[in-house]
Amino acid sequence: MGIRFILMVNKQGQTRLAQYYEYLTLEERRALEGEIVRKCLARTEQQCSFVEHRNYKIVYRRYASLFFLVGVDNDENELAILEFIHLLVETMDRHFGNVCELDIMFHLEKAHFMLEEMVMNGCIIETNKSNILAPIQLMDKAT
Amino acid sequence: MATTASSFMDSLFQRTLDDLIKGLRHNLIGEQLFISKSLEDIRKEIKSTDLQTKSIALEKLTYLSSIHGIDMSWAAFHAVEIMSSSRFSHKKIGYLAASLSFNESTEVLLLITNQLRKDLSSTNEFEVNLALECLSVIATIDLARDLTPELFTLLSSSKVYVRKKAIAVIFKVFEKYQDSVGVCFKRLVENLEGSDGKSMSAAVGVFCELAAKDPRAYLPLAPEFYRILVDCRNNWVLIKVLKIFASLAPLEPRLAKRIVEPICELMRKTGAKSLLFECIRTVVTSLGEYESAVRLAVSKTREFLSDDDSNLKYLGLQALTIMGPKHLWAILENKEVVIKSLSDTDSNVKLAALRLVMTMVSEDNVIEICRVLLNYSLKSDPEFCNEILSSILFTCSRNFYEIIVDFDWYVSLLGEMSRIPNCQKGEEIESQLIDICLRVEDARPELVRVGRDLVIDPALLGNPFLHGILSAAAWVSGEYVEFAKSPFELLEALLQPRTNLLPSSVRSVYIQSSFKVLVFCLHSYLLNNEAHIPSSSPEKLASGVPDTVLGDGFLEASVITAPKSIVESEHDADFSPGASNHGVSVENDGEDVIHGQTSLSVPLEKDYFTRESIIKLLDMSEMALGPLLESHEVEIQERSRNVIGLIELIKQEITGPLVKKETDDMRDEFKALNMIRLICDGFSEELGPVPVTAQERVPVPEGLTLVENLCDLDTIFADMNLLTQSSLILGTLNLGETTGGSLSDLQTKDDLEPATESTSLLSEHRKRHGLYYLPSEKSNSLYNAYPPANDSLLQQNENDHVDDLVKLTEQSLVPKKKPSHAKPRPVVVKLDEGDVPITSRKLESEENLLSGAVRDALLGNEDKSTSAKVPCGKSSSKRIEKGKQSVDVPSESNDNAADKGKADVGKGSSRRSKGRGKERKHKSGVKGGTQREGNGQRENLKSSRTSKHKTHHGAVDSVNVIPQTPVIPDFLL
């Protein structure tokens, strides 16, 4: 499976985007998000970006007020996931121009599409920013 | 007309998603209220016939569901409707809603098969994309089966955009519907071989997941992976390929040999830390025998460790942890960093360092390391402190305390841990104390000493985390009171007023222990008298000698307990009847205890168990326990009643008027002695660990039908109201909690005691409903219901004893060269069955369905392609022959194959015998043929080396990598 879920959470702990690659009920999701927020948001910048949680790892990174948290299997490469997060942020940056929390809130659908271009069934399938954004730009033109 | 008008109004005044989000942000009326208002609107709008209105409603609902956790399962049908819209902007909203909210139990899934099929075959690649994305999330068995043909087509689509996504989805489909493997596997492999980087990368991702589950099935593809490893420049792909090799390499030594160099090359050259780390991980997990590679990996790891970035440091520690057991030198080289990391600011780094330290622990350094760690635990925050404690506890108890030689040390370490202020590991320490007590006879004196120290400290009683430990300590010191230096002091500790802070379950253990101590004191006292009144018998004198020992301890103790009595007994020798003998060696000391201890019946302390002190003892117990007779807790009430009952009986016997004739006195004491002796015998039965499987050894009596469903238990509990509320529940629950040992034993004791009303009721109940006790309790049912089984078990224990000792010394002495210990390691009683959890042997042999399917697919492909490519050349036809041979080989030589499915008998087992190495193969019947074959291919290997990597075609590499394996299917050639 590789990636199990991707969360974007602001520093107040509010979820801004949640994409799960395995099915969890709403209650399970809420519980999971709560636990993760409690575990990760309290950590300082100097502390490492990997947190063990239940039977998997969370790799996270903070950009301004937004935390990007990715839950992965234990044998996943942590540094690669960090790079993935960075790539995601750069891609969003390119599309929205200096992306911020509000962009993601108001364009949740687009954020999901970007993720869909990058990750499928928990596997990273596209890492080229232009390729990721091409379909979205097409759609934008069409409407 | 009215409806169309209203829907028009709806769409005119409908809030868009943006409006919704803005409303949420401004939050004028409170979030919850706003959401529920919006939901009302959405419910109305979503019923609209206008697709635009409907899809906006769904869009809003999807937003609320994914961000605010609002249930949207009720809108599933609407989502399906919108999915089927012909307009892309609607369709995508429908698909997003479906993939975010549908799951296997969503009923409308049955309706979307056709829609998905239609979109999967659409000419618009973005529509295909939507369907694929949705399928990757919601695929069910049915969907996977029905849509396999469409996916098969997409796997060779000319549009890369679609193809790579189809590849990613196929893994999900494989998981759900194994038969799809037969159809699609070949195309998946083609994508791996293909020149297109995107599809290849997606395919590698899929194989990485597949290989993690059952690597063996993918060995034949090793040449392809090797090609990618050497040629590919994309770090994402390389990381995945390395993961695949990490699982393949251990299966095939020649493959390992082949990939070492390229991986080292990557390690040296790459600038990407992620790739570097993956290389390190691959080397240390799967290529451990290649010294130079490991050295390189370790030096790279050192760079990680010395980096300021805490991420790298953490990963460096992780890498060392993986190396740990095999390459201790690597850890030792970095010892300093590791120990420093224990006090890092980041708790995760600390934790990683702790784990690493624990992997270093061995028999020789366990004392030293535990000392260091314990010091750290005192300094660190509560959370980490407990992490340290639990890892010490875990490591030391692993495999029956394998690494512990000096149990006295370990037991006192446990005592020390209990006193650490932040200690919350009471439960674990409790069970280990009891476990060691039962298993390691030689540790008991020290255990009793540690137990005494714990029980006697009034400060510990206030800490609820320690109650478990105290319960164990009380039990130990009661059960093995004969090792106690001062039973008096112990009794006083057990009855101290602060015990009212204990929960009732623990308190009843205290009371029971004090009962044992009391009985022990009385027994010693009375026996003493008996021994010395007819004082001429020299034998008894002799047997009395070693036990004077306890004198020292008692001296200290009696200063606290009964200072008066000691003074009296010292000076006023005549007071005690036993004192006439006090010439007998008081000089003996401590060491003798160990010899004298084993039999309880040996008299103890003549000079100190005086009538005066015994009476004091009785008074004290009576005072402490008296109030408990009114306790509402049945366990406490009952047990204290037992003690008080005994005290009353004994008091009549020994006290009486002080000015009594000696002869009368003696006769009375004789009576008392007999009584006490009976009780004492009850207590002196040896306790041992009981295997989990013990229950199974009890033959089911004829005519007894075991009920599988225990639901009628409720009615039984209902009609035994009184009992259930108190003793029964207490009894059973506690037994479960305290890991067998402590309370169950007490329970046994209870049965042996002069039964009070409730105990007899309890045993009555047990007799009637004994069978209900079987499943939940591991050990105690034995004691209670089936004494014969217990007996036979004990005997067997004794027999095992010697064997175990032999085994144990073999195990612990042979593999490690260790300095000769001053003390030999004491025996640790192990039970052959039951104690050891059943190993996962079964699981191993059980084949994963998916990989079975893959194997079939590979086999099928091989057949197909060989039939197509037979005229390809000598070597390939030879190989086919050889493949056939090896199919025959295992059926003769390999009995493991017996239980495997027909289809993969040949494949799987030949591979298995392969993995075991060459010797095996030479022994087997087809020796000549295979050897010749092997030689031929080795030549082949040499010649092909000269033209290394010139072609991208699989053939050369496949020969290079695993020249001898018949396993490589010919379609790779």
Structure description:
The complex is a heterodimer of chains A (143) and B (973). Chain A is an alpha+beta fold and 143 residues long. Chain A has five helices and seven strands, in the order ββαβββαααββα. Chain A has helices at residues 26-41, 78-96, 101-106, 108-118, 129-142, and strands spanning 3-10, 15-20, 50-53, 56-63, 66-72, 119-120, 123-124. In chain A, the strands form two sheets. A five-stranded antiparallel β-sheet of chain A has the order 2-1-5-4-3, with helices on both faces. In chain A, strands 6-7 form a two-stranded antiparallel sheet. In chain A, β3 (50-53) and β4 (56-63) form a beta hairpin. The N and C termini of chain A lie far apart (35 Å). The mean pLDDT of chain A is 91. Chain B is mostly helical and 973 residues long. Among the domains of chain B are: 504-694 and 736-773, no CATH class; 852-972, no CATH class. In chain B, α10 (160-176) packs parallel to α12 (197-213). The longest helix of chain B is centred in the middle third of the chain and has 29 residues, at 504-532. Chain B is extended. Chains A and B meet through β2, α1, β3, α2 and α4 of A and α2, α4, α6, α8 and α10 of B. Chain A: Keywords: Membrane, Protein transport, Transport. Chain A: Belongs to the adaptor complexes small subunit family.
Distinctive features:
heterodimer, A: alpha+beta, five-stranded antiparallel beta sheet, 26% strand, globular, B: 973 residues, mainly alpha, 50 helices, extended, AP_mu_sigma_su (chain A), membrane (chain A), AP_complex_ssu (chain A), Longin-like_dom_sf (chain A), protein transport (chain A)
